Amino acid sequence: MFERRRRLRIRAGIPALCFSAVALAALPRTGVAGGWSWQTPQAKVLDRGDLEWSPKPFVFETGASVRYIDYERGSDDNEGTSKDRPWKHHPWDPEATGKAAACSGIHTYVFKRGVVYRGRLFARESGRPGDPIRLTSDPSWGRGEAVICGSERATNWHRGADRTDIPEPHKVWWTDLDFAPRLVWMIHRDGKITRLPLARTPNW
């Protein structure tokens, strides 16, 4: 069987990119009185009519049952009930296996801070009033932000174009992909993120 592969070329770029893939599914209701949590005002009106950003401070809360997720070092065969033995995937992720995939019910899912979770979550369960399913992070576990990112990271980069119609081929980095990205970002070494324009044949 012939598999067509797509080659992505980035001119004068650093080979560390993140691709947008799939948006997360809607999460269940949080149990906030009167509707959804994002309906709570996060700004106040000043005397002159201006708005001032004043979000509600983050408070780490858990329910009776807690599961821990570390996408970088976790394993779906772990128990998932402690920071020392976390899962890699959330049970709602189609890539979940083992004990993670078998889990269901009302739990608090704690994602490790400083770790980017790459995957898709399909919320097929719901909590109860006063007892929601929580997706959160523990300030004492990891450093930075916990990120759920529906994207793919491209690796195995090579330098130099192999086409004669591409100018300045030494400024081109390329890698083969089995999908065609629609949006591309470059992550710099200092953490800055830049969106890159994509070339299209024949306009390289």
Describe the structure.
There is one protein chain. The protein is mainly beta and 204 residues long. It folds into two domains: 6-20 and 152-196, no CATH class; 59-149, so0334 like fold (2-Layer Sandwich). It is 2% helix and 26% strand. It has one helix at residues 98-102; strands at residues 6-11, 17-20, 43-45, 51-53, 66-69, 108-111, 116-118, 134-136, 147-149, 151-154, 158-159, 172-177, 184-187, 193-196. The strands form five sheets. It has a four-stranded antiparallel sheet, with no helix packed on it. A hairpin with a 5-residue loop joins β3 (43-45) and β4. The chain is extended and about 65 Å long. The two termini are 29 Å apart. The model is unreliable at 1-32 (pLDDT under 50).
Neighbour order of strands in the largest sheet: 10-2-13-14
What's the story with the biggest beta sheet?
4 strands, antiparallel
**Strand coverage percent:** 25-35%
Query: How far is it from the N-terminal to the C-terminal residue, by CA?
Result: 29 Å
Q: Give the ordered list of helices and strands.
A: EEEEEHEEEEEEEEE
Instruction: Give the name of the CATH architecture of the largest domain.
Output: 2-Layer Sandwich
Number of strands: 14
